[in-house]
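Continuing the batch. This is chain 6 of the set; chains 1 through 5 are on the previous pages. Same settings as before, nothing changed between runs. Recording input and output for traceability.
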Amino acid sequence: MLVHIIADYGSGDLAFAEVVQRIKLYLPDAELIPVPVPPFSTLAAGFCIAQLGLNAAPPGTLIYHNVAPRLDDHAARPGNAGEGLAYARLPTGVRVIGVNSGYALSFIKDVAEKFRWAASPAEGSQFRSRDVFPQAAAAIALGLPSALGDEIDPGALPPPPSSVIAYVDGYGNLKTTIAFDAKKVRPGKHIRVRVNDREQEALVSDGTFAVRHGELAFAPGSSGWPVRHGGEVRWMEIFLRGGNAWDLFKKPAIGSAIAIA
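Output for chain 6:
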């Protein structure tokens, strides 16, 4: 069983090792892949969940995610309570288990075949994703009938924000929530791209290497997935061929607004 662990512990952090160890205790045959996202970035987590969960995956694939800034209640939290553990089943057969926090489920809310609460407490440990949630996730993965609770109304989940940075990959490419539209993308046109207080000229392209070395481009990227009622969405990227667009724009945070002129 392939299990993606999407969390904001930090690349190579001890927390990843501890969670891997705990999940293996309950699912000894699982192949676990850590996927780090920036601290408290439910938007990046949601983007990764959709990219991995809505594209072709091996049978039995599970996504276990935990980015829980505990922003659902700003008061003091008795027992380290936080956002509840949710479950979703996607059309690909991938199962998604993790906290219902921020935008974590926003990209899959319109396509998931099932949304349920997991039969798991939302408190009991500061490190719930190690001490509380793995056993509940394993119960769901094993199909135990008592593992799931009430249904979740997907209409109550927030939609993803438009025209923002959703993810920054290892090359410094900025993956956006601007959907590719063949009617609007005019290859060869020069535009101005503004992120926060930084503005740069970019070339509109229909492919990553259709620009010169050292040139900033705005083009449909490698991320996207099928959508309801057929078709697919493909997300635009801002990339600097041979360089790092994230550095060029002074390392903007996930969720930073993007303006195109």
